[in-house]
Design a protein that fits this description.
- This protein is an alpha/beta fold.
- The chain folds into two domains: 215 residues, Rossmann fold, CATH 3.40.50; 74 residues, Alpha-Beta Plaits, CATH 3.30.70.
- The chain is built from eleven helices and 14 strands.
- A six-stranded mixed beta sheet has the order 6-7-8-3-9-10, sandwiched between helices.
- A hairpin with a 2-residue loop joins strand 9 and strand 10.
- Helix 3 packs across helix 4, helix 3 runs parallel beside helix 5 and helix 4 packs across helix 5.
- 39% of the residues are buried.
- Bound molecules: adenosine-5'-triphosphate.
- The site of adenosine-5'-triphosphate has 10 residues, from helix 1.
């Protein structure tokens, strides 16, 4: 059994009469990326602050890296690193000086501190800028320096609170590579982000926080299957083939059509048929078998699944408003 890097049960936190977390459970296996999503004000930062010992929960059992947070917060602090919205970078001093300051805070011997700082500056492509004041760094460089500083203490668990907010696409991709590199070294990453694509790219598991609780949790693929909107599209170039397929579909009751609706629906004059499907291997296999047996040969077959944006809207929108499904070609 994989052990848990982060385990929280019954996490509660209120500010005045506002309940922010109302009994949240979290379980993050070691060496994985866990992403907490939620609308603005849902309590993501509050959760990160509690799990990283910066704020005290009103109730809940929390174990981080095997340490009981309430009983031994110092041990938890020794196991974790936190970066993100509360950056530790001091702009008045150079990148290298920031790193050496962290090495001092971690009580590394002088030579060891210099070695670790130089290594990390090199790893994050900051060697050239190391002697310049951090205030002159770009947003992406500051984020890289922030993570490098966090790694001085060699934490096994890292909390990244919106690590790529405000970064351009290239810097964002660089940050994703850095996060993947950390995970391949066995580090556990707890990530909050406003970018659903980021969670989709990086996270092994995703939890959606809404209304004080976890509205849904699973892999990106599992979450996408929770909401309707998935379908298979068949495109034809020959109008006759299209018409005969459309009529065969109207006749058929497809066993895999999750909605239970009869057959496929002609979508438009572009000779496209649309068949409800969750995109799972089992459903696709039975659909392909059925197409073969009905003698239907489409010129193009694409599987469309809801994306995480759809999931997010469906789970966090006001009750009663249906999900805005958007097509997403896989
Ligand atoms: N120190 C505090 N005192 C009072 N209320 C607070 C405090 N910190 C957070 N809150 C409130 O708790 C709620 C959750 O805030 P939090 O910052 O955790 O949300 P978030 O999900 O991280 O939001 P965002 O995506 O906007 O960063 C908000 O309504 C916020 O106003």
């Amino acid at each position: 059994m994989t052990s848990l890097a982060i385990a929280a049960n019954g996490l509660r936190k209120s500010y005045g009469d506002k309940t922010v977390l109302d009994g949240v459970d979290l379980a993050v296996p070691e060496g994985t990326v866990f992403s907490l999503l939620g609308p603005n004000g849902a309590g993501k930062t509050t959760a990160v602050k509690i799990l990283s010992t910066l704020v005290t929960a009103d109730a809940g059992d929390i174990r981080i890296g095997g340490h009981d947070l309430a009983a031994d917060p110092q041990a938890v602090r020794g196991a974790i690193g936190v970066t993100g919205q509360f950056s530790a970078v001091d702009g008045l001093i150079t990148g290298e000086e920031n790193m050496l300051l962290m090495a001092d805070l971690h009580h590394l011997p002088r030579a060891e501190g210099r070695r670790v700082a130089a290594e990390l500056l090199e790893r994050f492509d900051l060697t050239e800028a190391a002697k310049k004041p951090a205030s002159t760094y770009s947003g992406g460089m500051k984020r890289r320096l922030d993570i490098a500083m966090t790694l001085v203490g060699a934490p096994r668990i890292i909390f990244l609170d919106e690590p790529t907010t405000g970064l351009d696409p290239r810097s964002r991709h660089t940050m994703w590579q850095i996060i993947r590199g950390l995970v391949s070294d066995g580090v556990t990453v707890f990530l909050t982000t406003q970018y659903l694509e980021e969670a989709d790219q990086l996270a092994d598991r995703i939890a959606v926080l809404n209304d004080g609780g976890i509205a849904a949790e699973g892999s990106a693929e599992e979450l996408k299957r929770l909401i309707p909107g998935g379908h298979v599209r068949l495109r034809f170039t020959d109008p006759a083939a299209y018409r005969s397929a459309a009529s065969a579909l109207r006749e058929a009751t497809l066993p895999h059509a999750r909605t239970g609706s009869r057959g496929g629906t002609p979508v438009d004059e572009a000779l496209v048929l649309r068949i409800p499907s969750d995109g799972s291997q089992r459903e696709l296999r039975s659909l392909l078998d059925w197409l073969d047996s009905a003698g239907i040969e489409a010129d193009e077959l694409t599987v469309h699944t809801p994306d995480l944006d759809d999931v997010f809207f469906a789970l966090t929108g006001p009750a009663g408003i249906p999900a805005q499904t958007k097509e997403n070609v896989r």
